[in-house]
Amino acid sequence: QVQLVESGGGLVQAGGSLRLSCAASSLIFSINTKGWYRQAPGKQREMVATITSGGSTNYLDSVKGRFTISRDNIKNTVYLQMNSLKPEDTAVYYCNVRRPTGSSIAWGQGTQVTVSS
User: Fold this and answer.
1) What CA–CA distance (Å, rounded) separates 2 from 65?
2) How many CB atoms lie within 10 A of CB 54?
3) What would the DSSP string read from start to end of the chain?
4) The sheet that has 67-72: what strands, in order across it?
5) Distance between CA atoms of residues 22 and 93, nearest Å
6) Rounded distance, CA 78 to CA 72, Å?
7) Which CA distances in Å does 9 have to 12, 63, 80?
8) Counting beta carbons within 10 angstroms of the beta carbon of residue 76, is it exposed (0 to 12), middle (13 to 18) or buried (19 or more)?
9) Alpha carbons 32 and 107: distance in angstroms, whole number
């Protein structure tokens, strides 16, 4: 069973930066699609960014140009660099790994990101 552990969340002022990390317990992580999702209070969980085993990335329109997803397959870790943060980025951010078919394998426990105005 894959276990995902996120870190790097916190409180930051608008315009600031944070880097989230997600470490996986299994090599399954490196051969599947990794992603970051977020859920704000009262809203549905949404995809923020994904990266395939081949390195192809996909982003939520509202974070394009501000967020960057990357991975280190040797460390079984995926990162989300978040720059120019806005109050509307405030949410719990979750790490996810899923098969190329789209079915989810595991979720992390979530890390809170709060952006103050």
Assistant:
1) 31
2) 7
3) ---EEEE--EEEETT--EEEEEEESSGGGGGSEEEEEEE-TTS--EEEEEE-TT--EEE-GGGTTTEEEEEETTTTEEEEEE-S--GGG-EEEEEEEE-TTS-EEEE---EEEEEE-
4) 4-7, 18-24, 77-82, 67-72
5) 10
6) 6
7) 9, 17, 10
8) buried
9) 13
Of the pLDDT bands very low, low, confident and very high (cuts 50, 70, 90), residue 100 is confident
Look up residue 43 and give its two tokens: 């809203």
Checking if the pLDDT of 114 tops 90, the result is yes
For 69-98, what is each residue's pLDDT tens digit?
999 988 999 999 999 999 999 999 999 999
For 21-69, write each residue's pLDDT tens digit.
999 988 777 789 999 999 999 999 999 999 999 999 999 999 999 999 9
Residue 2's pLDDT band (cuts 50, 70, 90):
confident
Fill in the amino acid letter for 104. Answer: S
